[in-house]
Amino acid sequence: MSDPIDDPVLSAVAATGKPYEVVPCDPELADTAAFCAAYGYRPDQSANAIVVVGKGDPRVYATCLVLATTRLDVNGEVRKRFGVRKASFASADETAEMTGMQIGGVTPYGLPAGLPIWIDSRVMACDRVIVGGGSRDRKLLVPPASLAALPDAEVVEALARAIEPPNPD
Q1: Is the dihedral angle over the CA atoms 61, 66, 71, 73 positive or is it negative?
Q2: Could you tell me the pTM of the whole model?
Q3: What is the number of structural domains in the chain?
Q4: Residue 110 domain-assigned (yes or no)
Q5: Residues 8/110, Cβ–Cβ less than 8 Å
Q6: Is residue 166 part of a domain?
Q7: What is the pLDDT of residues 98-124, one digit of tens each?
Q8: Domain span at residue 90?
């Protein structure tokens, strides 16, 4: 594993003063559903960090953290928070440019200063939550208080909506 001093993600998680665990994973299994199935984590204890863009002039960005059992409300809450008429998920290229991380490894830790981090309030109800680790070969298991302690972090009510289970009919 990387040395926290030389790794901005591990340095940021350590700086919260909260306990954390680095969970190695196969990069081919880094996407949430595959990771949960392979490593025994539940989707309701797994959170996705998603970079979003408000399509104003200039474009504005934020990183949202939502449980895998929910769907980010991009066209409602995100758009409203940005104060723009249109918002969307950032592309993989924009995400990499903004964060220095690939999809499947994006984490709220080690992000550029000034990039807002909006955390859905459901995340805070978890005892511990598994999040990206900054690269596709690791995840971080952290208490939600560690996420809320990050600079630029804000807990947001109704940032995401529950995903409705499929209708059995």
Answers
A1: negative
A2: 0.93
A3: 1
A4: yes
A5: yes
A6: no
A7: 999 999 999 999 999 999 999 999 999
A8: 8-160
